[in-house]
Design a protein that fits this description.
Order of helices and strands: HEHEHEHHEEEHEHEH
CATH topology: Rossmann fold
Helix content: 25-40%
Shape: globular
Number of strands: 8
Strand content: 15-25%
CATH superfamily: Thiamin diphosphate (ThDP)-binding fold, Pyr/PP domains
Largest sheet: 6 strands, parallel
């Protein structure tokens, strides 16, 4: 199963106002290709994807928040699963794409290549809706969780490999954070950014 096929299925069912947080590297580039949007926050550093999505879920409980994490990224901060399970934000959906490797820096194996089971860790923390999928058909079935109430966690076992990146595929991550924050200001009518004293979205 390829991550791009999973993300393509996911992109077909996400809503325009869903906030999506991605991890580093290939996941970000594939999601940018499939669903370019101001509602995407890209390239969260190792260990930070799920925690940032968790914070958004707590701050905006009426919005659906999706974390697109990876095995290497999540393994660096497994405590985040305990924090998520403790609060159980009903609007948070966590997808972990597990290729058993740190693919972007060269393919070194992660702990999941040696038997570590992220689904069992999530269940042990108290995330009851935790599932493992290994085929695209199983992944598509679990997309029903998007419309169900309650926290959910899905680990998708995927192959190594990614799509060919077009020339100049890099994005300005500072600018991405700015437009993401301004999108929240615009849609929530609440000030977020501190770089300006007044927001055109929150004040007349």
């Amino acid at each position: 199963m390829k991550r791009f096929d999973c993300l393509k299925a996911l992109a077909a069912v996400v809503r325009d106002d869903d906030l999506v947080v991605t991890n580093l590297g290939n996941t970000m580039h594939e999601w940018l290709t499939l669903r370019p949007s101001r509602a995407n926050l890209y390239n969260m550093n190792l260990g930070q994807c799920t925690p940032v999505a968790f914070g958004l879920a707590l701050a905006l409980p009426h919005r659906r928040i999706l974390a697109l994490d990876g095995d290497g990224n999540l393994l660096l901060n497994l405590a985040s699963l305990a924090d998520v399970a403790h609060s159980k934000p009903a609007n948070l959906r966590i997808f972990v794409f597990d290729n058993q490797a740190y693919e972007s820096p060269g393919g070194m194996p992660t702990a999941t290549a040696h038997g570590v089971d992220l689904v069992q860790i999530a269940k042990g923390c108290g995330i009851n809706k935790s599932f493992l999928v290994s085929t695209i058909e199983e992944f598509k079935q679990k997309l029903d969780l998007l419309d169900e109430s309650g926290l959910s966690f899905v680990t998708a076992k995927i192959e190594l490999g990614t799509i060919e990146r077009p020339p100049y595929a890099a994005i300005d991550h500072k600018y991405n954070k700015y437009i993401f924050a301004s999108y929240i200001e615009e849609t929530e009518k609440k000030p977020v950014l501190r770089l300006r004293s007044r927001s055109p979205f929150t004040e007349k």
